[in-house]
Specification:
single chain; alpha/beta; Rossmann fold; Hect, E3 ligase catalytic domain fold; five-stranded mixed sheet; 17 helices
Length: about 500
Amino acid sequence: MEENKNEIKSVVAYLRKSSEDDAQGQANKQLNSMDYQRSFAQEAITKYNLRIEKSFEDDKTGYEAFVRDDFQEMLDYLKEHKGKVEGIVCTEISRLARNFADGGMVLWYLQNGTIKYIFTPSKVFTNSSSDQLMVAIEFAMSKKSSDEGSYRTKAGMKSKAQKLRHPARPAVLGYVTEGLRGQKLWKIDPVIGPMVRVVFEQFATGKYTLQEIADFAYSIGLKSTAKRSTTGKISKNTWLNRLQDLQYTGIFYHKEERIVGEYEWLIPSELFYEVQDVLQNSKHPKTTHMTYAYSGIARCGLCGRMLSGTHKKGITYYRCDKRGEPCKNMARTTYVDEKTFEARLIEEFSHIEIDQETWSVCRDYVSEMNQPEKIKIKEQIRKLGERIAYEERIQVEAGRKFADDKILQTDYEKLIKDSNLQIALYRSTLVKCENIVHELDELMYNFLDNVKYVTKRLAIALPENKIELITIFCENLVWKDGKARFDWKKPYFILAKQPNNSTVLRR
């Protein structure tokens, strides 16, 4: 520095403020405030005879690598202006980085000559080997300090959770928090708590969708306290989260550890897992309204809108709603009765007749078509197996803690009970998945075996069964010019597209 005392050096200034400074106390907070850092940058101009070409500011932690936009921009700027900009001004080395990845880039820039100096209030670091070592040590000490701070924070939260045996977070719907800061305990809300339990009990019946349970909850007085809520209703997504929240059973997670709380449970474990079964199997209430077989699947051949069903004098009709061109300008609405509609469908279906050769082709096609779905289901089976193994490891670990007198017998029994319920739920789903894998081809094979009887089945089927048949066989179903027209779905298009003189199909 003495040799070039009168030479003005071009540099950049780097300023960074993050929450880690607040955590280290008031003195550190003031030392690394943005005002202080800007003030030092101005003082450095005179003190070290500098010209600041550009300033870069970040408000993110230096502990994580590659997350600070201005830091990355500064590195790019220094690389582009190598030989013109000679260094960096900052209040301390830890401002530049608290991790080895970002710190390593600064060291590399010193080593390859991209920069020659780092100016701080107490020292000017040059690109000499001894100063590079000092910078490396500063980075290492900063990272160690951050690591220890992070560890203490996490350990403190874990200790709090284990000591107080209450979740270290705000109480969920149905609970309130009581006590001093840092010692808050969960208590069941005497008004809201019982209503939350009623919601669980009602949903466990399988008679409610999520939207309906949200409406039910609102009707009994459970309302949103969020300021942004305009209706006062708790959303169905929020209810989905609440219905899956294990904390209601008196067990909570801290990181990946399952802890038995000392707060009173609101929902019995058996009821909680009944709700999980309903959610997992998507049970919905049965509706009692009249079902029209072709509403929602057949379209008007003129305007393309769906036909709607109506029932008059014991006869079911289908008609266009006349909301699309050209139907909306027509004076009369054309009705087609269901028997006429079905007669046209049966006429088309009667053309299909399968011989042994086509039956074999279809079986091979079905097997190939189902292969991707089988792979997905097998992957789900693998993941369920991993979850079961994880629960079994939790049981072993709980047994060790109980044997070492680290947890009470009541806590051990509650953990084992919860884990067994989890395993039962996973195994139930696993069995269903395994059955689907085995039945995926067989269901279609049986359908192919019976396809020549489809006309009789369509004629005598209930509306919901007719919907199933049409959905399986047909797509793009329209009624036009007194005829039902449609495209055959896979794999039935193989049968329908045989030539008229084929021995496979009878026309």
